[in-house]
Sequence to fold (179 residues):
Amino acid sequence: MEKSPTELGRDAFLRCFEWDGGHADVWRVFNDAVAFAEVVAGMAAPWRSVEVTKVCGIESRGFILGGAVANALGVGFAAIRKQGNLFPGQKREVVSEPDYRGIRQILRIQQQSVTADDRCLLVDDWIERGSQAIAARDLIEACGGVLVGVAVIVDQFDSDRAQLPAITSVIKAAELPGE
Fold:
């Protein structure tokens, strides 16, 4: 029986995933062209029937995944950068609530990268507390766009899901092998 793109993405991610010193190493999936393509297909699949006009990604893994998912969906990509990096033009900025490490991130987006016509999909590798996703939503809305969903590789979201639109994932954190 043929696997769906999401099942392929899950299997591909598990082939590459390892714990390293207590930390999840998701970088390995980028080294394997086949696994990377399958994970991207799995992330994009649930959003093909939704009218997404722009994919947004948070620096840094969100850039890699977001650009690839944008390409798979045939839409543009808008970068959301963390403070301290070159980013020309007029920007919007927001401070996130603390992330899983207790760190507040200052996130920025170029004002012109998202417009009132944009229906945005946020892409990242992992969601746990959702603080950066909520901050990204606020940035998208400040530019006039709408966040229609969030696509991640690993869903470990442990907060109030009502704060964000639909969240899709390749795998749930509870399905990962133990350390």
The chain has one domain: 46-174. The chain has a mean pLDDT of 93. The first strand starts at residue 18 and ends at 20. The beta strands are 18-20, 23-25, 54-58, 76-82, 91-95, 106-110, 119-127, 146-155, 166-172.
